[in-house]
TrEMBL record:
This is Penicillin-binding protein, 1A family. GO terms for biological process: cell wall organization; peptidoglycan biosynthetic process; proteolysis; regulation of cell shape. PANTHER family: BINDING PROTEIN TRANSPEPTIDASE, PUTATIVE-RELATED, PENICILLIN-BINDING PROTEIN 1B. Residues 103-278 form the Glycosyl transferase family domain. It comes from Candidatus Beckwithbacteria bacterium GW2011_GWB1_47_15. It comes from the Bacteria. InterPro entries: Beta-lactam/transpept-like (IPR012338), Glyco_trans_51 (IPR001264), Glycosyltr_51/Transpeptidase (IPR050396), Lysozyme-like_dom_sf (IPR023346), PBP_transglycosylase (IPR036950), PCN-bd_Tpept (IPR001460). GO terms for molecular function: penicillin binding; peptidoglycan glycosyltransferase activity; serine-type D-Ala-D-Ala carboxypeptidase activity. It catalyses: Preferential cleavage: (Ac)2-L-Lys-D-Ala-|-D-Ala. Also transpeptidation of peptidyl-alanyl moieties that are N-acyl substituents of D-alanine; [GlcNAc-(1->4)-Mur2Ac(oyl-L-Ala-gamma-D-Glu-L-Lys-D-Ala-D-Ala)](n)-di-trans,octa-cis-undecaprenyl diphosphate + beta-D-GlcNAc-(1->4)-Mur2Ac(oyl-L-Ala-gamma-D-Glu-L-Lys-D-Ala-D-Ala)-di-trans,octa-cis-undecaprenyl diphosphate = [GlcNAc-(1->4)-Mur2Ac(oyl-L-Ala-gamma-D-Glu-L-Lys-D-Ala-D-Ala)](n+1)-di-trans,octa-cis-undecaprenyl diphosphate + di-trans,octa-cis-undecaprenyl diphosphate + H(+). Keywords: Carboxypeptidase, Cell membrane, Cell shape, Cell wall biogenesis/degradation, Glycosyltransferase, Hydrolase, Membrane, Multifunctional enzyme, Peptidoglycan synthesis, Protease, Transferase, Transmembrane, Transmembrane helix. In the N-terminal section; belongs to the glycosyltransferase 51 family. In the C-terminal section; belongs to the transpeptidase family.
Length: 721
């Protein structure tokens, strides 16, 4: 009742300010709704051809149901509904604080609401049109809600059990300013009622003005003027069409679409969506849209006091996906992350120093990631040489961008091989080969050093990263099995199997550094996959725990690889002697005092250079290259590029740790193997010890005669360490 009295009072208060046209329009709207309800009831009764007494019963039942529905509607929707006048007195938002694992503050989101009020007359027409085109093209024609939008939202609820979509600008205004961020039907109904009230009490230009001055554009920028100043260093009055389109696309998902977010290219994609909508609504010509798409948008330098910016944005995106944009921006969350700020600062300095030293070789960027394999905790994340270097797309987080991994992907191939008849001692011919696949060019793989090495064991082929044996192994069982293994181990980017051929084992399929960390972490965990986890604890403004990371039950590990296979691969990658032919005896892949499994990767066109390695306790991945995908002039794996970054960070991580060795699981056995034949050794050959899955070890011995023949004929060019 109080809501009805308030509404009547507001109507009487406003009646003198409304024109007769406005009052008549409201009367017609209400009359139309009542008329449609009466028409539906009458048609229903006529179709049923009910007797008079049954008509009275049904009518009474309908009135009772309407009475009950009205009461429910009041108690659940209207009773505690905010007044539209509250739009002028918004509660201040609470800041969300992001901390490292030791309680050091990394960044505060929305400590202040940076807002500068601006009248609608000062907002350029192309910015208004861009906003209306992407958010609410029928804004000036509806009464606060869109029938099509509601229908679309209902279909999402019914078909996909997903509450989303359908909001007009008026609904967005009341949702952001007056309601909670919960995603429920009750909240949507409240939003609808408030939108109708706001449309009745304010004219369209007033609503649009409030929207432009209150909506969040990301970061601390509330309102269009603050957004233009934050992103472009200029007033909203001076933004170009390209800049206006970028800004207009932000409110739908400020974190995801931010040009300073974890994936700045999404901002460009969203900008193009806005420009396309402007063309569809005939607000601009197609040529204007194309010119705007080609225009370079220059972003203002970001000078916020932020530590580990790529990691902070990565965490924010994860929080938004779990708790919603409003909760992160205004909910006063306290977030303890897994990051070690001291290690992070060391990693940033190491990446910047190595990239600077490689500038003569056309290397402009680098990235690094440090994790704890057993828990998936991220200890350091450096997404680029300099986050604030906008001229070189420093905001792009290479750690989460798909790049070609080169030979760093080979362990996935050999993980399949060891489960399909191969052993670490299997002999493979490293010799020229050409594959003629119908519909594809002939493929002739070559090794990184341009040479062929004759008969080599699988152990040596992987340790020295020989390409030809890897391709031959993959060809023996098929690309599909390697794709399936990669997906099981944690690769999320191999979703179009038809794109890949035998070059997949040499890095022909893009992967994310975060995915590679999960793959190698699975080897470190003896076959158990543990996804990366950047967040340890989240509490709300009242101190209530919303999320708690607990690794007491194995960190939700998923056994995806036999521990025997994982260990055999680890033993090969940690065999410093076996990789001497390719990398030398004193390469930076060696970490004195610790047994470390490590692998490098360089694409044939020198666009990507990787090093990734692990102990039981730490995993380090590093990369150098260029964001524009242009090739580097020269990089020598094990000497320059990603390896010095990896070596320095692994050394830092292990400096206070006791000497470490990988412990064989009970599921492997050893045997003395002849490297020339792959059989059990004899007295005439330089035997070495190899690990096997029980039952897969050779059963026959070589003979001195066979060894003598091999040496005399020169059939084997195997290198013996």
């Amino acid at each position: 009742m109080d809501r009805a009295l308030w509404f009547i009072g507001r109507v009487l208060e406003k009646i003198g300010r409304f024109t007769y046209k406005s009052i008549f329009k409201l009367f017609l709207l209400l009359l139309n709704i009542v008329a449609q309800l009466i028409t539906v009831v009458v048609q229903l009764v006529r179709r049923l051809k009910l007797p008079h007494f049954r008509f009275k019963t049904i009518t009474l039942t309908l009135f009772i149901l309407l009475f009950i529905a009205g009461n429910l509607f009041y108690w659940f929707i209207l009773k505690d509904l905010p007044h539209p006048s509250d739009l002028a007195t918004r509660k201040p938002s609470l800041s969300t604080k992001i901390y490292d694992r030791n309680g050091q503050l990394l960044f505060t989101f929305y400590r202040d609401q940076n807002r500068t009020l601006i009248p609608l007359s000062d907002i350029p027409e192309h910015f208004k049109l861009a906003t209306l085109a992407i958010e609410d093209a029928d804004f000036y024609r509806h009464n606060g809600f869109s029938y099509r939008g509601i229908a679309r939202s209902l279909s999402q609820i019914v078909l996909n059990q997903d509450l989303q979509g359908g909001s007009t600008i008026t609904q967005q205004l009341v949702k952001n300013a007056l309601l909670t961020p919960e995603r429920t039907v009750i909240r949507k109904l409240k939003e609808l009622v408030l939108a109708i009230e706001v449309e009745f009490l304010f004219d369209k230009d007033q609503i649009l003005t409030m929207y432009f001055n209150q909506v969040s554009y990301g970061g601390t920028a509330y309102g269009a003027e603050a957004a233009a100043e934050s992103y472009f260093g200029k007033s909203i009055k001076d933004v170009t069409l390209a800049e206006a389109a970028l800004l207009a696309g932000l409110p739908a998902a400020p974190t995801a679409y931010s040009p300073f977010g974890s994936d700045p290219y999404l901002a460009i994609h969203r900008q193009h969506q806005v420009l396309n909508r402007l063309v569809e609504t005939q607000s601009i010509a197609p040529l204007e849209a194309e010119l705007a798409k080609q225009q370079k948008v220059y972003l203002a330098p970001q000078t916020q006091n932020i530590s580990a910016p790529h990691f902070v944005m990565y965490v924010k995106q994860a929080l938004v996906e779990e708790f919603g944009e409003a909760a992160v921006e205004q909910g006063g969350l306290s977030v303890t992350t897994s990051l070690d700020l001291n290690l992070q600062q060391q990693a940033q300095a190491v990446v910047a120093s190595e990239v600077d030293s490689l500038s003569p070789y056309h290397v402009t960027n680098g990235a690094a990631l440090v994790t704890k394999p057993s828990t998936g905790e991220i200890l350091a994340m450096v997404g680029s040489r300099d986050y604030f270097d906008t001229a070189r797309d420093g905001q792009v987080n290479v750690v989460t961008r798909p790049r070609q991994p080169g030979s760093a992907i080979k362990p996935v191939n050999y993980a399949v091989a060891l489960q399909n008849g191969y052993t670490a001692a299997s002999v493979i011919e490293d010799s020229p080969v050409t594959y003629n696949i119908p519909g594809q060019p002939a493929y002739s793989p070559i090794n990184y050093d341009g040479k062929f090495h004759g008969q080599v064991s699988l152990h040596q082929a992987l340790a020295n990263s020989y390409n030809v044996p890897a391709v031959k192994v993959l060809a023996s069982y098929g690309v599909e099995k390697m794709i399936a293994m990669g997906q099981a181990l944690g690769i999320t980017t191999w979703n179009e199997p038809g794109r890949f051929g035998l070059s997949l084992t040499l890095g022909g399929g893009e992967v994310k550094m975060t995915d590679l960390a999960v793959v190698y972490g699975t080897l470190a965990n003896q076959g158990k996959k543990v996804n990366l986890n950047p967040i340890l604890k989240v509490t709300d403004a009242e101190g209530k725990t919303l999320k708690q990371f607990d690794c007491g039950f194995g960190c939700n590990s998923d056994p995806v690889l036999p521990d025997s296979v994982a260990f055999i691969l680890t033993s090969i990658l940690s065999d410093a002697n076996a990789r001497i032919p390719a990398f030398g005896a004193n390469s930076l892949l060696n970490t004195p005092g610790h047994q470390v499994a490590v692998k490098t990767g360089t694409t044939n066109d020198k666009r990507d250079n990787w090093t990734i390695g692990f102990t039981d306790d730490f995993l380090v991945a590093s990369w150098v290259g260029n964001n524009d995908n242009s090739p580097m002039a020269a990089v020598a794996s094990g000497i320059t590029g990603a390896t010095p970054i990896w070596h320095e960070l692994m050394t830092q991580a292990l400096k206070d740790q006791p000497a470490s060795q990988f412990t064989p699981p009970p599921s492997v056995v050893t045997a003395s193997i002849c490297p020339l034949t792959g059989t059990l050794g004899c007295s005439g050959c330089p035997n070495y010890t190899e690990f096997f899955v029980p039952g897969s070890q050779p059963q026959n011995h070589c003979s001195e005669e066979v060894i003598r023949d091999q040496i005399l004929t020169g059939a084997s060019s195997i290198r013996i360490e």
